[in-house]
Write a structure and sequence with these properties.
Strand order of the largest sheet: 2-1-5-10-7-8
CATH architecture of the largest domain: 6 Propeller
Number of domains: 2
Length: 573
Amino acid sequence: MCLRLLLLQRVLVVVMIVLAAGPPALAAANLLVNPAFEQGEETGENVPGWRASGYDGSQHVDADFVITDEGRDGSWGGVLDLGPNQVWALVDQHLSIEADETKSVHFSVWMRAEPPVERAELVLFLHLPEQKLYDAAQVRTRFAVGSEWKQYHTSLNLVGPAVMGLSLDDAHIRAIIQLYRPADKLYVDDASLTVEAADERIGELLRGCVAQSNEAGLLPLKDGSVGIFLQMGGRIMLRKSYDAGQSWGPPEALRDTNGDTFGGITPVVVRLSSGAIGMFLNEGERKLFFCRSEDEGRTWSVKRQINEEGQIARMYNGSAIVTSTGRIVGPTYTYPTDYGWSQGHPNAFGPHTGMYCWLSDDEGETWKTSEEIVVYHEGKRYWFEEGNLVELSDGRVLMFARTPMGRLFKSYSSDGGETWSSPEPTPLAASYAPCALSRMPTGDLLCIWNQNTLEEDKVVLRRARLTCAVSSDEGNTWKHFRNLESLDDVVHIPDRPILWGDEVLSYDHYVPFDQPTDLDKYPHAPGVLRCAYPGVTFVGDRAVVEYDYGAGLLPTHYIKVRSLPIQWFYENP
């Protein structure tokens, strides 16, 4: 009797656990054609259902993607066989899906490489053909592929495009396996593409996001709105807000006087002394363009390259100004010697950087450049890049720029940006990331930047804390520290030591961001780990702040906007 009672109790416990857990989740259907890379009736050169392509450094070429019996556990699989001159190759499928804002797409595949490859990616592109947005959203997950079978995966949340005002009707997904040399063969098996319910946290995190992009430009417009200029779907778009950034209209593609849309990255917009709008655009590091609009952004002059071919001239969001004399001053960075990815540098950190400025006194018709601004310490050159500008009350121009030495550094110009003082450290502890520097309607200066400690730098917590502070003495001292984003409640990190010599941290930008594990120290973790590249403008009694927002709980980058009363920046002592 006791044994029967014990068995009955155990059965009841199991039933209660099952009921508490709810019904088993239905497995999502695999959308891929030939997900197991099985042999078809006509094998030919390619795996049925998949498309392959490659690039040999000068042109696109066919990449052999063939059936193999060397799949996992002796099954069929596919092998991407690279020729000796291939720079990269990919295999992909383009699929129509049923999607809405509560869904996310998951892509996974098993792979191994001979020899192991240091860089490969899984990529998901969201296409919205009816809206002519062929990369309305995307996610790239980068990793190394070893010689043993391992499963790799990535996810694209469809919540993001929905909150940006995009309709997900007629949605298509392009799923890509991309391989970069060196590698001879990439073996693949058991791929999966499914559409499932999105994580509820994603919708909350994306509140306030206006686009999947990196950097954007803000500008008050004459109709009473504030415009945000950004790159979406390979084109420059404009979204407007008539309530100081609290809500936004749909994105509209900008067009030039020929009626053509145009692309570029990192739009930097300024109000010219004539009342027109000027806009800088980059294409990579070596092409800087400028164009103008005389009708508040409805039409634009055809963009014109202003730097010499091959000249490094990278500009970042919110950095340019128009001085009280009407001069356009646009800061860009450069390197002491010309170099490129082809010379083996893993990222742009390599050689020590310097700043210089593009100057125009005729609203962008003609341009000249300033002298280079560099940091020297005991005869050695250091990093000084991605500067932001503000005009001071005495007519000088102040530049704050990022360094990896633990502080923001500053430089002054007394001649409208033509010559500059030797950069010196500010009191603001900072990671290797740029700031936003601006004049508030109160007359004070506002700085928004990534504040962190040396210890956080070492564990890759570089850009999780986005801080702001106010200066009432033209940038010499700072107070009223507050965080716009942070995993903890630390608002001020004073007296961070300046790093020189071998102490300077050389960042590998491919190292992933990691969530902190000490939840007592970081009570708001896990969270978003990249809140960087801020920009700000002012409308009435409110500040509109935008910044790059991604990594951590978000697999890709968005532009987040916050609308705050100006008084908010003064609420901390």
